[in-house]
Specification:
By secondary structure, the chain is an alpha+beta fold. Helices cover about 40% and strands about 20% of the residues. The protein contains 3 helices and 4 strands. A hairpin with a 2-residue loop joins strand 1 and strand 2. It starts with 5 loop residues before the first strand and ends with a helix.
Length: about 80
């Protein structure tokens, strides 16, 4: 377990993540992390958003359905 300290960052507060945490999350400076509610009232920090994944899947399905239309419009 890693202990993180909440620090003042300008007019806001923030948490500094050590290199090991960044590597395990597979993120780097500028990436977006998601803080979600966990099963037992805890919170989870991840680089994966189920909502975004669902939206991407819906977009891909839409594009597959209208592939011919998109090709015709691209000409």
């Amino acid at each position: 377990m890693l202990a993180l300290k909440i620090m003042q960052v300008g007019n806001s507060v923030g948490v500094l993540l050590p290199k090991e945490a960044l590597a395990k999350l597979g993120v780097q400076k500028g990436d977006v992390l998601y803080l979600t509610d966990g099963a037992e009232g805890d919170m989870r920090l991840s680089a994966y958003s189920p909502d975004v994944a669902e939206q991407i899947a819906l977009g891909e399905a839409f594009m597959d359905e209208y592939r011919d239309t998109f090709r015709a419009l691209a000409k």
